[in-house]
Amino acid sequence: MDLFRKKSxxxxxxxxEAKGASLKKDLGSFDLTMLGIGAIIGTGVFVLTGVxxxxxxxxxxxxxxxxxxxxxxxxxxxxSEFASTVPVSGSAYTYSYATFxxxxxxxxxxxxxxxxxVASSAVAAGWSGYFQGLLTGFGIHIPTVFTSAYNxxxxxLVDLPAILIVLLITxxxxxxxxxxxxxxTIMVLIKLAVILLFIxxxxxxxxxxxxxxxxxFGFSGVATGAATVFFAYIGxxxxxxxxxxxxxxxxxxxxxxxxxxxxxxxxxIIVALVLTGIVPYNLLGVNNPVAFALQYxxxxxxxxxxxxxxxxGITTVLLVxxxxxxxxxxxxxxxxxxxxxxxxxxxxxxxxxxxSWITAGMICFFSGVLPLNKLAELTNIGTLFAFIxxxxxxxxxxxxxxxxxxxxxxxxxxxxxxxxxxxxLYLTLQLPMTTWIGFSTWLVIGLxxxxxxxxxxxxxxxxxxxxxxxx
Length: 471
Known about the structure:
By secondary structure, this protein is an all-alpha fold. It has helices at residues 9-16, 29-40, 43-57, 61-85, 92-99, 102-137, 160-174, 177-202, 218-229, 236-239, 249-278, 289-296, 300-334, 353-368, 376-400, 415-428, 433-457, 459-470.
């Protein structure tokens, strides 16, 4: 039994073109950039910035963002090479199948299921909190029993708004990727306008004395802050899951990945500067730091817009995360490692409808019924693990298939892939031990699923078995 059998890139490309089972090619570079920004700017900038400034980095929050961005930029270049060379659904899972073989691909696919699933659930719960806050402003109150995940002490049973937004997003995704992309673009433009409004108003209230001491918790605080705000960058890798639905992916995939990351990095750095310049860092340990900063300078009218921006921002993150999860299930199922229902495509919309609703059910359960708390940290370690494997994959594929046609090439190989691996490893070491234990437990469960189900049903295994019988 060959656990490390690889899928050839020619086979991957032919699968993506198969009639009747392929996804509709409807996206251009602008759509991909908007998907990337939609996935990246959300909870990170609207929620995490304050806590990281108050507890870890102080005004050096800007350095935490730059450190995280460097890890992401190096990894993004590696993703861009793979996405333009192997424009197939499945992101890092698919790249690993071609580079390291089936077992590694499954481990990474299982890891990404955790990343997208937990992130979607956490984001839906976050969206619910902001939405309830907005309703409260209008004097509307949802019955306590429907406001949060099951908690007998607080009298809550289920987070109904979280479930409803997941169902609404899924309904939109089943209508076709182009309609979803248009909706995403409108929401992203609202979100960017709100962030620019904060920068434009806040810049006039910046007091440079608030930036001293610049690094109150030392560099170790900046490093811990970088590992935490890394959550704010998660999402650009979800762009690569769209590869099979892109017109001219060889050109458009690198543009979408790199442009979205560059735009978000610049915005994050400016927001961090303005935020810590307006409010002393020790006061920023709140759940809504951007709105709090505007209230602090008595610009309450802008704070209302910020709440609207947060809701649209979190909506687009949820859209792209649920989308990424469905396309990942689609790719793994097509290889036989998960049941066939996940790879069935509706002939009219050319979207995996059954897959989408099953995914929605899972996310609704986790976001609506189970309290997540620390589980969101698993998203960070899962993503960093994927980044490391993809970066190593570029080095392996350059060595094993040097003549492969690459529309985009990572510059300065092997330096940039090695830097990506080192930066990501460094950030994983800043995460708490409980996160490592949870991540390891998830991977062990994944191995049981693979050896109990996927190994025998793998399409590559079935093909090799039939070839053995013929010979």
